[in-house]
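lol ok so funny story. i was supposed to be doing the assay writeup but got distracted and ended up predicting the structure for this chain instead. priorities right. anyway since i did it might as well share w the group, maybe its usefull for someone
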Amino acid sequence: MSLNPMEAYKKVEQETLSGAEVEAAVLIKAADKLEECQKNWDAADRESQLDESLKFNQLIWSIFQSELASEDNPLPKDLRLNLLRLSSFIDGRSLDTMAYPASEKLTILININRNIAAGLRERPKAA
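and the output, tada:
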């Protein structure tokens, strides 16, 4: 079965992006999902949209946690520890938002994702 043009483009894009670019793109996607939920807070499907966007974000950060905890991770130890602390904060904020939903609680998650993504995109230029 052949891919439609958009799927083909996404497949090529995925195969040609660096690890940092992929991580940045996924963080932006998660931020966009959270922001969409925040903008449509009064929508009838808000509960499912919130659940989906928070779980997607948590999955990404769980993968990051796993990579950051690995002893063979090439990042400096201090940076890894700071990112692990940040991921712990994200876990806590996500669980709090699931238990006590409020649209303003998503803002910090959106901002963190966008800022980390920006840093990942700048890193290769600085190297």
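The domain at 5-126 is CATH 1.20.120.340 (Four Helix Bundle (Hemerythrin (Met), subunit A)). The chain has one domain: 5-126.
back to the writeup now i swear
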